[in-house]
Amino acid sequence: RPEGNASFTARPPATAGVPSPNLPGSGNVPNLNNPGGIGNNPIGGNGNVIGNIGNAINGGVNNPAPVDPNIKPGTGAVETPVSGSAIDGNRSNQLRWQGQNRVAVGDTFLVQLTMASDQAISSLPIAVGFDNKVLQVVGITEGSFLKQGGVATNFTSRIDPNGQILISGTRTGPIGASTPADVVSITFRTLAPSNGTPIQVLTASPIATGGRAIAVQLPPPHNVTVAQ
């Protein structure tokens, strides 16, 4: 106990190995202009978390994200782009269905799968699914997409009895295809009535010239109503 007028200040016990926290007045002030990035100092370090958040906010203000031209002002809704329209600043790699959507039992009908691309495509493997209790495949024909420019192609197709069509097309030569055109035409025969049986692209793996895989926007299912 302190005696007389001598002052006494209690000190907390020292803890070995514990770094000084970034408290106000501690002298360990976070560097708000540190460009190191949260990925470089996720926690602690030189107290860069606050600085990195500040940089991210300032970067967003000084460099606002581009406005999507497909968004209608005031609605937030995105219009479905047509073939060749701008998505993310480029014409999108898109597949689309075309064909009849209302037939009767016993009819045959044709659907086409088309593609538009902002990159030169040299190969295009695709898997198509359908209900084999309602539809039967009676014909598969290569389209003009990979053939454009008069280039020879290698085209194969196989019908899986479980309701899938496996298709693969490859261009010969160093120049790829990009002009919108049909990839394949498929002829079906209807076997049973349906209020809406889907024909859909299950997978698509386009390869650009040079062997680089690219992403593609798959189309919604092509629903076909089959009347009795």
Report on this structure.
The chain is mainly β. Helices cover 7% and strands 37% of the residues. Strands 4, 6, 8, 9, 11, 12 and 13 form a 7-stranded mixed β-sheet that branches. A 4-stranded antiparallel β-sheet has the order 3-5-10-7, with no helix packed on it. Strands 1-2 form a two-stranded antiparallel sheet. A hairpin with a 3-residue loop joins strand 8 and strand 9 (164-171). The chain starts with 47 loop residues before the first helix and ends with a strand. The model is unreliable at 1-10 and 12-90 (pLDDT under 50).
How many strands?
13
Could you state the order of secondary-structure elements as H and E?
HEEEEEEEEEEEEE
Strand content: 35-45%
Distance between the termini: 102 Å
User: Overall 3D geometry?
Assistant: elongated
Major beta sheet summary: 7 strands, mixed
The structure class reads mainly beta
Helicity, as a percent range = under 10%
Low-confidence stretches: 1-10, 12-90
Averaged pLDDT, please?
Answer: 74
Q: With helices defined by DSSP (H or I, 4 residues minimum), what is the helix count?
A: 1
Q: Rg to the nearest angstrom?
A: 31 Å
Strand-helix topology:
Layout (H helix, E strand, L loop, with lengths): L47 H15 L23 E2 L2 E2 L2 E6 L2 E3 L3 E9 L4 E9 L5 E8 L10 E8 L3 E8 L9 E10 L3 E11 L2 E2 L13 E6 L1
Parallel strand pairs: 4-13
Antiparallel strand pairs: 1-2, 3-5, 5-10, 6-9, 6-11, 6-12, 7-10, 8-9, 11-13
